[in-house]
Amino acid sequence: MIEFAYAADAAAQPNMLMQFAPLILILVVFYFLIMRPQQKKFKAHQAMLAELKSGDRVLLASGFVGRIVRSDDKFFTVEIARNVEVQVERNAVASKLEA
C-alpha cells in the first residue's frame, strides 16, 4: 500500500522542465527586448566616438553644442564659444551633429 502511495505521488508531480519553462521564457523575452537593443546602441555609440575627428560638431551630454578642436585617447577638447575651450571625457559626447 505504501509503494502505491509513492507511485501516485511521483506521477502527480509535474515535469521539471515544465516548472522552469515560464522562467526560461521570461529570460528570453528580457534578453531580446531589453539587453540586445542596449548592446546594439552601445556598440553604435562606441563606433561614433571612434570616428570623431577635429572639426566635427557634437552635442555633449550636458546639452552644450560645440566643435572638436583636439582629441586624445580619453578626452576631447571642445570649443563651445569663441576662445572658450573645455576638455571633456569621450563618453560625454552624446551625438555627432551634421554640419
UniProtKB/TrEMBL annotation:
InterPro entries: Preprotein_translocase_YajC
Topological type in the membrane: Single-pass membrane protein
Bilayer-spanning residue ranges: 16-34
Subcellular location(s) of the protein: Cell membrane
Primary localization: membrane
GO cellular component: plasma membrane
Biological process according to GO: protein transport
Protein name: Sec translocon accessory complex subunit YajC
Biological source species: Neisseria wadsworthii 9715
